[in-house]
TrEMBL record:
Keyword Cell membrane on entry: no
Stored SUPFAM superfamilies: Nucleic acid-binding proteins (SSF50249)
Family: Belongs to the replication factor A protein 3 family.
InterPro entries: NA-bd_OB-fold, Rfa2
Cellular localisation: Nucleus
GO cellular component, one term: site of double-strand break
The UniProt record lists the keyword Cytoplasm: no
A Gene Ontology biological process term: double-strand break repair via homologous recombination
Organism whose genome encodes this protein: Pneumocystis murina (strain B123)
Keywords, comma-separated and alphabetical: Nucleus
The protein's name: Replication factor A protein 3
GO molecular function, one term: damaged DNA binding
């Protein structure tokens, strides 16, 4: 069985260094092969060739947390502009509080 990819936001990055995670983020700024995104705090992500990020859109990213707390994007799904980030963050909190139900 594959290892689970926990849902996190920026506040949990330090706990998952060198691990693969899921984050729902809002793209704030694109700069070459990196992007500044928001997930309850700003974080830099390193894009791959298939990343088609659009400023202002939300994306679910699966990526690996680097020691400098940036994220290497492995894959990303465009969720558009209509995302309830309060609900997203509640899911993150609940999935960690009731870990055994989610992983």
């Amino acid at each position: 069985m594959d290892k689970p990819t926990p849902r996190i936001n920026v506040s949990l990055c330090e706990q998952f260094v060198d691990q693969t995670v899921r984050m729902i983020v809002k793209v704030k700024k694109l700069k070459g092969d990196t992007a500044l995104v928001d997930s309850c705090g700003l974080i830099e992500v390193h894009l791959n060739r298939d990343s088609n990020f659009i400023e202002g859109n939300a994306f679910e990213i699966i990526g690996k947390i680097n020691p400098d707390l940036s994220v290497n994007v492995l894959t990303a799904i465009n969720f558009g502009k209509d995302i309830d980030f309060e609900a997203v963050n509640l899911v993150v909190q609940v999935s960690h509080k009731y870990h055994e139900l989610f992983y």
